[in-house]
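EI: anyone free to look at a 358-residue chain?
SC: sure, send it
EI:
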Amino acid sequence: MIAPVFRALLALSLMAAAGCSQTENAKENPAPDIAGLMDAANIPGLAVATITDCALKDVSYYGVADVETGEPVGPDTIFEAASLTKTLFTVIVNQLADEGVIDLDKPLADDFDYPRVTDKDAYAKLTPRIILEHRSGFPNWASDPLDKETWGSIEFKNPPDTKFGYSGEAYMLLQAYVESRTGESLDRLFEDRLGDVMAHSMLSAPIKPGMTPAFGHDENGGKEAGRAMKPAPRAGAAYSALTNAQDYAQFLAYVCNGAGMDIGARGDMLRPQSPTDDPEIVWALGWGVQSRDDGVVYFHWGDNKQFKAFAAFNPATRDGVVYFANAYNGLKLIEPIAEPVVGDVTPIADWLDYGRVD
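SC: here you go
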Protein backbone atom coordinates (compact mmCIF):
# COMPACT_ATOMS: atom_id res chain seq x y z
CA MET A 1 0.00 0.00 0.00
CA ILE A 2 1.26 3.48 -0.88
CA ALA A 3 1.26 5.96 2.00
CA PRO A 4 -1.37 8.75 1.73
CA VAL A 5 1.33 11.42 1.98
CA PHE A 6 3.02 9.92 -1.10
CA ARG A 7 -0.26 10.14 -3.01
CA ALA A 8 -0.73 13.75 -1.92
CA LEU A 9 2.75 14.71 -3.09
CA LEU A 10 2.08 13.05 -6.43
CA ALA A 11 -1.24 14.86 -6.86
CA LEU A 12 0.39 18.23 -6.23
CA SER A 13 3.19 17.44 -8.66
CA LEU A 14 0.87 16.33 -11.45
CA MET A 15 -1.34 19.38 -10.98
CA ALA A 16 1.73 21.55 -11.45
CA ALA A 17 2.80 19.62 -14.53
CA ALA A 18 -0.65 19.82 -16.07
CA GLY A 19 -0.59 23.56 -16.59
CA CYS A 20 1.24 25.68 -14.04
CA SER A 21 4.15 27.86 -15.04
CA GLN A 22 7.63 26.80 -14.05
CA THR A 23 8.22 27.27 -10.33
CA GLU A 24 11.51 27.79 -8.58
CA ASN A 25 13.47 24.57 -8.62
CA ALA A 26 15.82 23.14 -6.02
CA LYS A 27 18.85 24.06 -8.12
CA GLU A 28 21.22 25.05 -5.38
CA ASN A 29 23.91 22.75 -6.75
CA PRO A 30 26.45 24.52 -8.94
CA ALA A 31 27.02 23.40 -12.51
CA PRO A 32 29.27 20.35 -12.37
CA ASP A 33 32.78 20.12 -13.76
CA ILE A 34 31.81 17.53 -16.34
CA ALA A 35 35.30 17.02 -17.74
CA GLY A 36 36.73 16.52 -14.25
CA LEU A 37 33.98 14.07 -13.31
CA MET A 38 34.50 12.08 -16.50
CA ASP A 39 38.22 11.90 -15.88
CA ALA A 40 37.71 10.74 -12.29
CA ALA A 41 35.24 8.06 -13.38
CA ASN A 42 37.15 6.90 -16.50
CA ILE A 43 34.32 7.87 -18.84
CA PRO A 44 35.56 8.76 -22.35
CA GLY A 45 32.30 10.18 -23.73
CA LEU A 46 29.09 11.72 -22.45
CA ALA A 47 25.97 13.39 -23.85
CA VAL A 48 23.64 15.39 -21.59
CA ALA A 49 20.29 16.97 -22.46
CA THR A 50 17.89 18.98 -20.33
CA ILE A 51 14.26 20.06 -20.56
CA THR A 52 12.73 23.20 -19.08
CA ASP A 53 8.99 23.79 -18.85
CA CYS A 54 8.51 20.42 -20.54
CA ALA A 55 10.46 21.45 -23.65
CA LEU A 56 13.95 20.66 -24.87
CA LYS A 57 16.36 23.26 -23.48
CA ASP A 58 19.85 22.26 -24.49
CA VAL A 59 22.13 19.36 -25.35
CA SER A 60 25.82 19.17 -24.46
CA TYR A 61 28.49 16.78 -25.67
CA TYR A 62 31.73 15.82 -23.96
CA GLY A 63 34.73 13.68 -24.78
CA VAL A 64 35.02 11.02 -27.44
CA ALA A 65 32.80 8.30 -28.83
CA ASP A 66 35.81 5.98 -29.17
CA VAL A 67 39.16 6.41 -27.42
CA GLU A 68 40.97 4.74 -30.30
CA THR A 69 39.64 6.88 -33.13
CA GLY A 70 39.27 10.04 -31.05
CA GLU A 71 35.98 10.89 -32.75
CA PRO A 72 34.16 13.41 -30.55
CA VAL A 73 30.72 12.79 -29.12
CA GLY A 74 28.22 14.92 -31.05
CA PRO A 75 24.61 15.16 -32.26
CA ASP A 76 25.03 12.12 -34.50
CA THR A 77 26.43 9.89 -31.72
CA ILE A 78 24.02 7.20 -30.59
CA PHE A 79 24.24 5.15 -27.42
CA GLU A 80 22.63 1.97 -26.15
CA ALA A 81 19.73 3.18 -24.01
CA ALA A 82 19.54 -0.18 -22.23
CA SER A 83 16.66 -0.19 -19.73
CA LEU A 84 15.55 3.32 -20.67
CA THR A 85 13.85 1.31 -23.43
CA LYS A 86 11.34 0.22 -20.80
CA THR A 87 10.04 3.78 -20.50
CA LEU A 88 9.42 3.95 -24.25
CA PHE A 89 7.56 0.65 -24.14
CA THR A 90 5.59 1.78 -21.09
CA VAL A 91 4.26 4.82 -22.92
CA ILE A 92 3.25 2.69 -25.90
CA VAL A 93 1.42 0.21 -23.66
CA ASN A 94 -0.39 2.95 -21.77
CA GLN A 95 -1.41 4.65 -25.00
CA LEU A 96 -2.88 1.34 -26.18
CA ALA A 97 -4.72 1.01 -22.87
CA ASP A 98 -6.03 4.57 -23.19
CA GLU A 99 -7.35 3.65 -26.64
CA GLY A 100 -9.03 0.48 -25.35
CA VAL A 101 -6.79 -1.86 -27.33
CA ILE A 102 -5.56 -3.59 -24.18
CA ASP A 103 -6.79 -3.70 -20.58
CA LEU A 104 -4.09 -3.12 -17.99
CA ASP A 105 -5.94 -5.27 -15.47
CA LYS A 106 -6.96 -8.19 -17.67
CA PRO A 107 -4.89 -11.37 -17.19
CA LEU A 108 -2.68 -12.15 -20.16
CA ALA A 109 -3.68 -15.80 -19.89
CA ASP A 110 -7.27 -15.00 -20.87
CA ASP A 111 -6.30 -14.89 -24.54
CA PHE A 112 -2.55 -15.39 -24.77
CA ASP A 113 -0.46 -18.47 -24.04
CA TYR A 114 3.26 -18.21 -23.30
CA PRO A 115 4.81 -21.69 -23.44
CA ARG A 116 7.96 -20.65 -21.57
CA VAL A 117 5.89 -20.18 -18.40
CA THR A 118 5.02 -23.63 -17.07
CA ASP A 119 3.30 -22.58 -13.82
CA LYS A 120 -0.06 -21.85 -15.40
CA ASP A 121 -1.77 -21.02 -12.10
CA ALA A 122 0.73 -18.25 -11.43
CA TYR A 123 0.65 -17.13 -15.06
CA ALA A 124 -3.11 -16.70 -14.83
CA LYS A 125 -2.56 -13.88 -12.33
CA LEU A 126 -0.27 -11.78 -14.53
CA THR A 127 -1.69 -8.56 -15.98
CA PRO A 128 0.00 -5.75 -17.92
CA ARG A 129 -0.18 -3.55 -14.82
CA ILE A 130 1.52 -6.13 -12.60
CA ILE A 131 4.32 -6.48 -15.15
CA LEU A 132 4.83 -2.75 -15.68
CA GLU A 133 5.11 -2.13 -11.94
CA HIS A 134 7.63 -4.99 -11.60
CA ARG A 135 5.50 -7.32 -9.48
CA SER A 136 5.46 -10.26 -11.91
CA GLY A 137 7.53 -12.55 -9.69
CA PHE A 138 9.90 -13.25 -12.60
CA PRO A 139 13.69 -13.01 -12.28
CA ASN A 140 15.33 -10.07 -14.03
CA TRP A 141 16.50 -12.47 -16.74
CA ALA A 142 15.98 -16.20 -17.13
CA SER A 143 17.93 -16.27 -20.39
CA ASP A 144 19.89 -14.20 -22.88
CA PRO A 145 17.24 -12.25 -24.83
CA LEU A 146 19.51 -12.21 -27.89
CA ASP A 147 20.14 -15.97 -27.91
CA LYS A 148 17.12 -18.20 -28.54
CA GLU A 149 19.19 -21.25 -27.66
CA THR A 150 18.96 -20.12 -24.01
CA TRP A 151 15.20 -19.59 -24.00
CA GLY A 152 14.07 -22.27 -21.58
CA SER A 153 11.24 -22.22 -19.07
CA ILE A 154 10.80 -19.21 -16.79
CA GLU A 155 10.41 -20.00 -13.10
CA PHE A 156 8.71 -17.60 -10.71
CA LYS A 157 10.92 -16.26 -7.91
CA ASN A 158 7.86 -15.01 -6.02
CA PRO A 159 4.09 -15.35 -6.43
CA PRO A 160 2.76 -12.66 -8.79
CA ASP A 161 1.71 -9.32 -7.28
CA THR A 162 3.27 -9.97 -3.87
CA LYS A 163 6.44 -7.84 -3.96
CA PHE A 164 8.60 -5.63 -6.14
CA GLY A 165 11.10 -7.51 -8.29
CA TYR A 166 12.71 -5.79 -11.26
CA SER A 167 12.33 -7.95 -14.37
CA GLY A 168 13.36 -7.44 -17.97
CA GLU A 169 12.08 -10.94 -18.71
CA ALA A 170 8.55 -9.90 -17.76
CA TYR A 171 8.71 -6.92 -20.11
CA MET A 172 9.64 -9.27 -22.95
CA LEU A 173 6.57 -11.35 -22.11
CA LEU A 174 4.41 -8.23 -22.19
CA GLN A 175 5.95 -7.29 -25.54
CA ALA A 176 4.88 -10.63 -26.98
CA TYR A 177 1.37 -10.06 -25.61
CA VAL A 178 1.13 -6.53 -27.04
CA GLU A 179 2.36 -7.69 -30.45
CA SER A 180 -0.25 -10.45 -30.40
CA ARG A 181 -3.06 -8.07 -29.46
CA THR A 182 -2.15 -5.40 -32.02
CA GLY A 183 -0.86 -7.57 -34.85
CA GLU A 184 2.11 -5.19 -35.08
CA SER A 185 5.77 -5.62 -34.20
CA LEU A 186 7.19 -3.43 -31.45
CA ASP A 187 9.48 -1.88 -34.07
CA ARG A 188 6.40 -0.76 -36.02
CA LEU A 189 4.56 0.44 -32.90
CA PHE A 190 7.59 2.50 -31.92
CA GLU A 191 7.92 4.12 -35.33
CA ASP A 192 4.19 4.86 -35.55
CA ARG A 193 3.86 6.28 -32.04
CA LEU A 194 7.24 7.74 -31.13
CA GLY A 195 9.04 8.02 -34.45
CA ASP A 196 8.28 11.73 -34.81
CA VAL A 197 9.47 12.41 -31.26
CA MET A 198 12.64 10.34 -31.62
CA ALA A 199 13.50 10.63 -35.30
CA HIS A 200 17.11 9.45 -34.97
CA SER A 201 16.36 6.46 -32.73
CA MET A 202 15.58 2.80 -33.33
CA LEU A 203 14.78 -0.36 -31.39
CA SER A 204 16.68 -2.71 -33.69
CA ALA A 205 19.13 -2.90 -36.58
CA PRO A 206 19.98 -1.28 -38.87
CA ILE A 207 21.36 1.95 -37.44
CA LYS A 208 19.73 4.91 -39.16
CA PRO A 209 21.75 6.74 -41.84
CA GLY A 210 23.95 9.52 -40.53
CA MET A 211 24.16 8.17 -36.99
CA THR A 212 27.48 7.02 -35.52
CA PRO A 213 27.57 4.34 -32.79
CA ALA A 214 29.56 5.05 -29.66
CA PHE A 215 31.97 2.37 -28.47
CA GLY A 216 31.39 0.95 -24.98
CA HIS A 217 34.47 1.23 -22.75
CA ASP A 218 35.49 -0.74 -19.69
CA GLU A 219 35.87 0.41 -16.08
CA ASN A 220 39.29 1.84 -16.87
CA GLY A 221 37.90 3.85 -19.76
CA GLY A 222 39.70 1.60 -22.22
CA LYS A 223 38.85 -0.96 -24.88
CA GLU A 224 40.45 -4.06 -23.38
CA ALA A 225 37.16 -5.19 -21.82
CA GLY A 226 35.01 -2.89 -23.93
CA ARG A 227 32.80 -3.74 -26.88
CA ALA A 228 31.25 -2.30 -29.99
CA MET A 229 27.58 -1.40 -30.03
CA LYS A 230 25.26 -4.36 -30.56
CA PRO A 231 22.08 -3.41 -32.44
CA ALA A 232 19.43 -6.03 -31.70
CA PRO A 233 18.08 -8.00 -34.67
CA ARG A 234 14.55 -7.18 -33.46
CA ALA A 235 13.09 -4.87 -30.85
CA GLY A 236 13.37 -5.82 -27.20
CA ALA A 237 11.04 -3.91 -24.88
CA ALA A 238 13.43 -4.25 -21.97
CA TYR A 239 16.75 -3.21 -23.44
CA SER A 240 17.24 -2.59 -27.18
CA ALA A 241 16.76 1.14 -27.94
CA LEU A 242 19.59 3.01 -29.63
CA THR A 243 19.24 6.76 -29.26
CA ASN A 244 20.96 10.07 -28.66
CA ALA A 245 20.55 12.62 -25.88
CA GLN A 246 18.37 14.99 -27.88
CA ASP A 247 15.88 12.33 -28.93
CA TYR A 248 15.43 10.97 -25.43
CA ALA A 249 15.09 14.47 -23.97
CA GLN A 250 12.35 15.13 -26.51
CA PHE A 251 10.67 11.92 -25.34
CA LEU A 252 11.00 13.11 -21.73
CA ALA A 253 9.35 16.40 -22.72
CA TYR A 254 6.61 14.42 -24.47
CA VAL A 255 5.89 12.48 -21.28
CA CYS A 256 6.03 15.68 -19.22
CA ASN A 257 3.41 17.18 -21.57
CA GLY A 258 1.02 14.24 -21.38
CA ALA A 259 2.48 11.55 -23.67
CA GLY A 260 -0.43 11.68 -26.09
CA MET A 261 -2.81 10.28 -23.49
CA ASP A 262 -5.93 11.35 -21.66
CA ILE A 263 -4.97 13.02 -18.38
CA GLY A 264 -6.49 10.13 -16.44
CA ALA A 265 -4.43 7.54 -18.33
CA ARG A 266 -1.24 9.54 -17.85
CA GLY A 267 -2.04 9.93 -14.17
CA ASP A 268 -2.53 6.18 -13.89
CA MET A 269 0.82 5.54 -15.55
CA LEU A 270 2.64 7.88 -13.15
CA ARG A 271 0.78 6.91 -9.98
CA PRO A 272 3.07 5.24 -7.41
CA GLN A 273 1.84 1.67 -7.15
CA SER A 274 4.56 -0.78 -6.09
CA PRO A 275 6.65 -0.24 -2.93
CA THR A 276 10.29 -1.29 -3.05
CA ASP A 277 12.68 -2.15 -0.23
CA ASP A 278 13.34 1.59 0.22
CA PRO A 279 10.54 3.73 1.72
CA GLU A 280 11.57 6.68 -0.48
CA ILE A 281 11.45 4.71 -3.76
CA VAL A 282 8.19 3.41 -5.22
CA TRP A 283 7.39 2.14 -8.70
CA ALA A 284 4.75 3.54 -11.00
CA LEU A 285 3.97 1.88 -14.34
CA GLY A 286 7.39 1.68 -15.95
CA TRP A 287 8.91 4.54 -13.94
CA GLY A 288 10.69 4.78 -10.62
CA VAL A 289 9.38 7.44 -8.24
CA GLN A 290 11.36 9.18 -5.50
CA SER A 291 9.32 10.94 -2.82
CA ARG A 292 10.53 14.26 -1.39
CA ASP A 293 9.10 16.92 0.86
CA ASP A 294 8.46 19.09 -2.21
CA GLY A 295 6.88 16.38 -4.38
CA VAL A 296 8.21 13.54 -6.48
CA VAL A 297 10.85 12.87 -9.11
CA TYR A 298 10.40 10.24 -11.81
CA PHE A 299 13.44 8.35 -12.98
CA HIS A 300 14.89 5.40 -14.81
CA TRP A 301 18.35 4.14 -15.56
CA GLY A 302 20.00 2.01 -18.21
CA ASP A 303 22.79 -0.52 -17.72
CA ASN A 304 24.14 -2.54 -20.63
CA LYS A 305 27.49 -2.88 -18.85
CA GLN A 306 29.74 -0.74 -21.07
CA PHE A 307 26.84 1.61 -21.85
CA LYS A 308 25.04 3.49 -19.07
CA ALA A 309 22.18 5.99 -19.03
CA PHE A 310 20.04 7.92 -16.56
CA ALA A 311 16.92 10.08 -16.91
CA ALA A 312 14.76 11.99 -14.45
CA PHE A 313 12.07 14.64 -14.48
CA ASN A 314 10.31 16.73 -11.86
CA PRO A 315 6.62 17.17 -12.76
CA ALA A 316 6.18 20.13 -10.40
CA THR A 317 8.97 22.25 -11.88
CA ARG A 318 8.60 20.69 -15.36
CA ASP A 319 12.36 20.19 -15.60
CA GLY A 320 14.19 17.05 -16.65
CA VAL A 321 17.56 15.63 -17.60
CA VAL A 322 18.99 12.63 -19.41
CA TYR A 323 22.56 11.55 -19.97
CA PHE A 324 24.30 8.75 -21.82
CA ALA A 325 27.81 7.47 -21.09
CA ASN A 326 29.94 5.09 -23.13
CA ALA A 327 31.66 3.46 -20.16
CA TYR A 328 31.15 0.96 -17.38
CA ASN A 329 31.30 3.65 -14.66
CA GLY A 330 28.70 5.89 -16.27
CA LEU A 331 26.18 5.73 -13.43
CA LYS A 332 28.61 7.16 -10.90
CA LEU A 333 27.61 10.64 -12.11
CA ILE A 334 23.88 10.59 -11.32
CA GLU A 335 23.94 13.21 -8.57
CA PRO A 336 26.27 15.85 -10.04
CA ILE A 337 24.48 15.76 -13.41
CA ALA A 338 20.85 15.39 -12.28
CA GLU A 339 20.67 17.49 -9.12
CA PRO A 340 21.27 20.91 -10.73
CA VAL A 341 18.19 20.18 -12.85
CA VAL A 342 15.69 18.19 -10.75
CA GLY A 343 16.98 18.69 -7.21
CA ASP A 344 18.03 16.08 -4.67
CA VAL A 345 18.28 12.54 -6.02
CA THR A 346 20.41 11.07 -3.24
CA PRO A 347 17.83 8.34 -2.44
CA ILE A 348 17.86 7.27 -6.09
CA ALA A 349 21.65 7.08 -6.22
CA ASP A 350 21.71 5.19 -2.92
CA TRP A 351 19.05 2.73 -4.08
CA LEU A 352 20.75 2.04 -7.42
CA ASP A 353 24.09 1.68 -5.60
CA TYR A 354 26.50 2.24 -8.49
CA GLY A 355 28.87 4.24 -6.33
CA ARG A 356 30.07 7.80 -6.66
CA VAL A 357 33.11 9.65 -7.91
CA ASP A 358 35.53 10.32 -5.05
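EI: DSSP finds eleven helices and eleven strands in the chain.
SC: 👍
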